[in-house]
Design goal:
The chain is α+β, with helices and mostly antiparallel strands. The protein has a ten-stranded antiparallel barrel. It has a seven-stranded antiparallel β-sheet with strand order 8-9-14-10-11-12-13, sandwiched between helices. The protein has 15 helices and 27 strands. The two termini are 25 Å apart. It is elongated and about 100 Å long. It has three domains: 29-212 and 367-401, Alkaline Phosphatase, subunit A; 215-351, no CATH class; 411-544, Porin (Beta Barrel), CATH 2.40.160.
Length: 545
């Protein structure tokens, strides 16, 4: 056992250099919070009433951009799969909840496939956020959000997805939607209290939400189109015969509850139908500009606001239309129909209607009015000051304008630690040394000693190795193997560990095949010092490095 004495002495020498080890992290830190379905229409309304005090006080007026125009279609998969990679509307990996990938073979990506791709496009630690959006688990979202402050000790970049506002709006309507928005503000306030001033924080919404008359459009269009339909997922309609796009675009407006349709009439033109107008978006590819023309009524209302048919750049359209009823419509729809997997016909409602589905029974989104397209963007931090005091913004540009953010960043290894505790029931000291060579892998050496006169004589020694199988902002699950040396015998064992994290408290639940269940409670007083008890029969400290 003399070798263990040498190991402990080496560890103590390492700990002597703690001052250098615990030097502050100089790399910029960012928390990116996805607030699902928070429309500027409702956020501004609630702020005016004083119902979102934490967002208002933390970001102030200078760190808030009310007129942020999101991706089209205004659907969660499109934004989640695109934003952090700086993808444009014509490049998004998931252009809706369903689309046709191969017209020859008729291959379709449907809701389940899109859902899985969306979830897997998020960071590993935030993948399970989707669970907190499910009724019955929604109460976990708040504690998980508040926990992000503690993860900054290991991660420079954190992403959090708060789905509950969207879920409440879809299933329970406007009142429940607003209540959940206020709950988010409360949770955010608790997080804000725990953040240092040098942490960069971005809160953005992916789309808004529309309440009003629910139309069972998916079922209706499938019956109305019959065999001519390839696939339909609002707002995207795919035909078996692309040459019939104009015919059906016109008929859909004349004979169904659809208010608008758009289709690609030529390489440089998108044509749209409304009962009171024919709409044209024309693109000049030489200088990358688009204009809007109409026959009948100016249904988009642009000419009434001073527009006169000019060809405008994307930035000029943003400047002109950001606060209008149909913000950025020519750019959004033309760019969407430029997408390789674009629908043949885009079908859209006015703001008084929404597509009712099993999931969106009381409210929905996906349209192109301000209710769905205009969202808030909140920013604060030393590396985000260039965004302060802007009146409007184009959300797809966010991580083109912010350089050097590696959203796939993770720690090079787990935290090493040395802990020692006294078991007053067994009159025994227990020493743990945890070593990690790389991220998600750790090894642990544990020595038990009842002879205080001879600290190098151990009752037993355990060595184990474990791998991280799952991690979220609340939990972590480890699986591993080990061996126990006791009474000159080696006893192999299998090991499971399940951690629950609540702010500065971590509950470690460990099961091994050779001994009883171990419950370890840690209170992390600092990023490198924790107080620990095991089964409430021992007490000690842990030093992380």
């Amino acid at each position: 056992m003399k070798v263990f004495k040498s190991i402990i002495l080496v560890i103590l020498l390492i700990l002597a250099g703690f001052q250098a080890v615990f030097a502050e992290n100089d790399e910029p830190q960012l928390i990116l919070i996805h607030l699902d379905a928070a429309s500027s229409y409702y956020v501004n309304q609630e702020m005016a009433k004083g119902n979102l005090p934490n967002l208002e006080s933390y970001f102030g007026e200078h760190g808030r951009i009310d007129y942020t125009i999101t991706y089209f279609p205004s659907k969660t998969p499109a934004v989640i799969s695109s934003l952090r990679y700086g993808e444009t509307v014509r490049e998004i990996p998931l252009p809706g909840w369903g689309w046709v990938t191969d017209r020859t073979e008729g291959t379709v990506v449907k809701t389940v496939g899109t859902f899985l791709r969306m979830v897997l496009s998020t960071s590993r630690i935030s993948t399970s956020n989707i669970i907190y959006g499910i009724s019955g688990f929604h109460w976990l979202a708040g504690p998980a959000l508040v926990n992000t402050a503690d993860y900054l000790k290991d991660y420079n970049i954190l992403q959090f997805y708060y789905y509950n506002v969207d879920t409440q709006g879809h299933f329970n309507g406007e009142e429940a939607y607003l209540k959940e928005l206020l709950k988010f503000d409360c949770h955010f306030g608790k997080l804000a209290e725990r953040l240092d001033d040098d942490v960069n924080v971005i809160v953005y919404a992916d789309h808004g939400m529309t309440f009003g008359e629910g139309i069972d459009v998916d079922e209706y269009i499938n019956k109305w189109m019959g065999d001519e339909l390839n696939y339909y997922s609002y707002p995207s309609l795919f035909l078996k015969d692309l040459s019939k796009a104009e015919y059906y675009a016109k008929k859909l407006v004349e004979e169904t509850d659809i208010d608008f349709t758009f289709f690609r009439s030529s390489t440089d033109q998108v044509k749209g139908f409304h009962n009171d107008a024919v709409i044209f978006f024309n693109k000049n590819y030489e200088d990358v500009t688009i204009n809007y023309e109409y026959e009948g009524q100016d249904i988009l209302g642009y000419y009434n606001k001073g527009y006169d048919g000019e060809y405008l750049t994307q930035d000029e359209w943003l400047s002109f239309s950001h606060d209008l009823h149909y913000p950025m419509a020519p750019v959004s729809i033309f760019h969407h129909l430029d997408h390789p997997s674009a629908s043949d016909v885009v079908t859209l409602f006015e703001e008084t209607k929404f597509p009712r589905t099993n999931y969106g029974s009381s409210g929905n989104h996906g349209g192109f009015t301000y209710r769905d397209m205009t969202v808030p963007l909140f920013l604060r931090g030393p590396d985000l000051e260039e965004f302060y005091n802007q009146n409007y913004y184009w959300l797809p540009n966010l991580f083109q304008d912010i350089d050097g953010i590696d959203f796939d960043q993770y720690p090079p290894r787990e935290r090493n630690y040395l802990s020692s505790r006294y078991n007053f029931r067994k009159n025994q000291t227990v020493t743990d040394f945890n070593f990690s060579p790389k991220y998600r892998i750790k090894y642990r050496l544990t020595a038990y000693n009842s002879d205080f006169n001879n600290p190098t004589t151990f009752d037993s020694v355990e060595f184990s190795g474990m791998g991280d199988m799952f991690r979220s902002y609340l939990t972590r699950f480890w699986v591993g193997l080990g061996v126990e040396a006791k009474n000159s015998k080696l006893n192999p064992f299998f090991k499971l560990q399940y951690d629950i994290h609540l702010r500065k408290f971590v509950f470690h639940n460990t099961y091994t095949t050779q001994q009883k269940f171990e419950f370890r409670l840690s209170y992390e007083a600092t990023p490198w010092l924790a107080l620990e008890t095991v089964n409430f029969t021992s007490l000690g400290i842990r030093l992380d490095f």
